[in-house]
Amino acid sequence: MNEELYQQKLMACWHGKNIGGTLGGPYEGFPQINHLTFYDPVPQEAMPNDDLELQAMYDYFDRIMRVGGGCYGKRQANGSC
Length: 81
Description:
Layout: H1 3-24, H2 50-67
């Protein structure tokens, strides 16, 4: 998978998770079945979502490890860590 396709897929996942977290957030943690047919009022902004922050951190550190070769991006001029 090339970098551009990866970025598109990552953003699609991010938006889906953000939308789901915003719409489901007010009902999270309540042990009940909710029969929702519409959101009233429809949220105009995304809610804070700790799940998104954790995934963003994972992606960031994963990229550092891949790009930096396990050296956290601090590779020396001679290629050693």
